[in-house]
Design a protein that fits this description.
The complex is a heterodimer of chains A (458) and B (313). Chain A is an alpha+beta fold. Chain A is built from 18 helices and twelve strands. In chain A, helix 17 packs antiparallel against helix 18. Chain B is mostly helical. Chain B folds into two domains: 44 residues, no CATH class; 250 residues, MetI-like (MetI-like fold, Orthogonal Bundle), CATH 1.10.3720. Chain B has a two-stranded antiparallel ribbon. In chain B, helix 3 packs parallel to helix 7 and helix 3 packs across helix 8. The longest helix of chain B is centred in the first third of the chain and has 34 residues. Classes of the chains: A alpha+beta (458), B mainly alpha (313).
Amino acid sequence: MNRKRFYLVISLVLLAAMLSSSMAAAQEKTKVVIFVGLGTGTAADQITRQEALAEEFNATHDDIEIEFLIVPHEEANTRYLAMIAGDNPPDLVGPHGTSTIAAYLDTWADITPFIEAEGYDLSDFYPPSLKLNEYPDLNTGLPLGLYPSFLLYNVDMFDAAGVEYPPSDYTDTSWTFDELRSRAMLLTLDENGNDATSPDFDPDKTVQWGFDDSWISIRGLLAAFDAPNVGRPTTDDYKTAVANSDEWVQGLQWFSDGVWKDHFIPSLEERAAYESAGLGTPLDGGLIAMFWSHSWYLAEMREVYFDLEFEMQLAAPSFNFKGTRVARIHADNFTMPEASKNKEAAWEVMKWLSAPEQITEVCLIYGCVPARMSAKDEFSAAMGEAFPGLDLNVIFDSIDYLDTPHHESWVPEWTKVEDTMEYAGGLIFTGENTDAKAVLDEANAEIQALLDEYWAGH
Amino acid sequence: MLKQFDIRRWSLAKREAAAGYFFVSPWLIGFVLLTLGPMLASLYFSFTDYNIIEQPSWVGLDNYAQLFQDPLFWQSIKVTLQFSALALPLGLLTGFALALLLNQAIPGVRIWRTIYFLPSVLSGVAVTLLWILIFNPKIGIINQLLALVGIDGPGWLSDPYWSVPALVIISLWGIGQTMIIYLAGLQGIPTDLYDASKVDGANAWQRFWSVTLPMMTPVLLYNLVLGLIASFSYFTQAYIASSSISGGELGGPVRSTLFYNLYLYQNAFRYFEMGYASAMAWVLLVIVLLLTLLIFRSSSAWVYYEGELRGRT
């Protein structure tokens, strides 16, 4: 080969290589990494279904591909922060709830510009669900799934005690906290079969309790009593602590009396007994007549529902002392880290996950109620198959009464405030201090100190 | 120029030193990168406000000053001291007593030693979960046994007054490690000392008091220092027990198990106050260092070093 021909061949090879690499670059998809682990999504079954979801997305999109990065829940907090700090951020995070969104509020991108830029239609989402993601200068994500709360009750216990069932009708104003207390006391039994209204009742030998609401934070517990800031222990400007509002004091005293005077609510020690005794969750352990929880609890019961040794039914949460009803809610969605390097693509994926075509499928993976009203029938049909006989309207009707400001919403020093409130709850449920006013006054002073410290530095 | 790197020209001592450094280099590199480096970094962070996401900002001694005004810091010191005051002497005594028993010529002694040592190699998490069941107020075996003798058992891990004693009992489960060290010490005592004391007419108690105990004091000192460090570093069991029992209140119920390390962890990985947590870590180091020095200073009064005495004569 002479020199001329040699240079020609080399030039052609280089040209071909350049062309092929630029074509490959043109065809290369933008990868959107979805960080899963701060909330639900890490169970084996969920991982498989998420992978199927990713395949479905990747097969139908030429420019974007998604990858679910599954992180064990106990490592997720540090992994997420390490990725942000190491300039290797995920593009979406979720599904996760209001609490983790609040805990890392500074790290999320505002999706308002994306919504406004294309006039994205939000009218199909339950209106209150949109509020859960809205902060003064920030919209953290599109609604995806909701976990309304309601009462789950053991029908057999009501039948055995001859007590009227709690209503599923949300317009029944006779269903108050006082009424709940009355019925719960009749359903609380000691080992001799005496109920909590009997003078012979022995509270140290209780074998069945009428009511329990322990699988929730103290802010969630007290949101039901509809204080001016509902589930938030601060004023609207986040500068003044209001954890000792009249409504919260009255509510916490109701719980305190329920445990220590009327004995229809299990104390912390009694809870520990049923929680660690291998009896499953409070309701399916057969020790609780009425349990206030969320639809995620129902999802947890999916596998045991058909094996339950009693009939279960759903009812509306009761009206509080102000004559209003607050049925706290949990909500999951995907959020976009501000540090994401693929925000445009991440927005497309966020929309796709919440789109009418996918939302039911996505929500069935995570056990939440789709935040789109149009998905109600499809989701109801799927839930009806999983839980035949349950009055599922109770779940959907609850959405109208959600707590806003939410009981997991952001406040300055969010985790410290949560810990302060949990300590306050611990004092009540251990019996260390049964005076709700004193307990919440102390908590309020601690929270105020945290707020003062926060605002001094901001 | 390159002659100085020609190993063949090096003196034997220099070559030996180079070989020594070469062979310890994996450990040295590991120590510098994985221990010394992070230690120095945490010392720097302890003078900063650092939340992982943002760059650390220098705050001088603020974190240290804030520590001493923090009521939860004092609560964590109180809880840790309570635990140490109970667990340390109890662990030392029980381990020693077990070692004495298992140093006897009894049938199947190796099996017994294995049985008592085994729990110390089990996972702290699994063991704690097991103990949560044992301490269950209603169906736990401890309260069931107490009920047989007419005692209404406490709530243990869910009772703020009994949570620390319960954790002390759990800590005894892992004394196999201490026991093995005692056992090695006991077997290192020269038998001629016992023979001589028998000839002098010493009974079993006198032999224990005048031979075994003095000869074991260096081992006691060793276990005391290790036990002190372990009790101030106590974490796993308190973390698992409180997060499983107290409705998620870490260090609960009502902050009764808020150990120093648990509070440190909370600051680092729950509140993401890495600077504050680093300051706590250094304060812990100083506390443990001071207590260890105190023990070493006191050791001249109660630890018997046979070699030292022989050297002096």
